[in-house]
Amino acid sequence: MNVPAAWYLVLAAVLFGIGAFGLLTRRSALIMFMCIELMLNAVNLTFVTFARTLSDIGGQATVFFVMVVAAAEVTVGLGIVVAVFRRRSSTSVDELSELKG
Amino acid sequence: MSAVAYAVPSILIFATAAVLILVGAIGVISLKNPVHSALSLIMTLFGVAIAFVAQSADFLAAVQIIVYAGAIVVLFLFVIMFLGVDRRQHANVEPLVGQRAFAGVGVVITVAGIVALMAKAHWVTGAMSVSTNGVALATGQGNVKQLGSAVFTTYLFAFEATAALLVIAVVGAVLLARRERTLQSDEVEV
Question: Min CA distance, A101 vs chain B (Å)?
Fold first, then answer.
């Protein structure tokens, strides 16, 4: 018998917390993207765990779509990072303050 | 139910996945060199793939390795090395006072809230699955067939939408990353 679903859910919650902490504290846009990936993976893990618990394939299908959206997001995000780096030769998000009121 | 009731292999698999996930995740947010962060991210992604296999999501585990570890992290590494960010060290300053403390408190509250919610809620209600007309999830022998028929019937519209999304993302990335062409004197607009 498999371990209880709660173990995986707590693991996913901790992974989400680590990703959120990194997103809030790191300055490099690249590392922030990686932290977003961590959070997306935590959610994927939760979806798969619920798919197992509730015996419903819908959770796994959702993970499939989350992966596609993550791939699209990374593509566009890294394109933006490259474009910003061309102009400022830095990926630090602190230097992007033109819209500051 | 005590943990002894569960088979030792499944506990070992969970422990392996948990160690890989947590060590990798902490490495991503704490290592200074972005290349090392990307390698730690691969470790986390492998841990998640192990957790997927342990929960009979075989196809997703394969996609996780191929798409995430194979494509997305390579894209990260490519951009890191293309830009030469790895040679540059970011100053370890805190522009906002107490940002780290606030972030830590907020994250702890969030995780504690999620865990408390999970401890109190009853997820298994016995309701029939709506996405598969009550067919139970196949375990142990792989459920690629089930997943495929769900994606191409129940979730067909979402599937088509992701196709459009990917095309838009590719076009957008090309537009963003393209070097702005300066108008030469000999190629005057007509």
Answer: 16
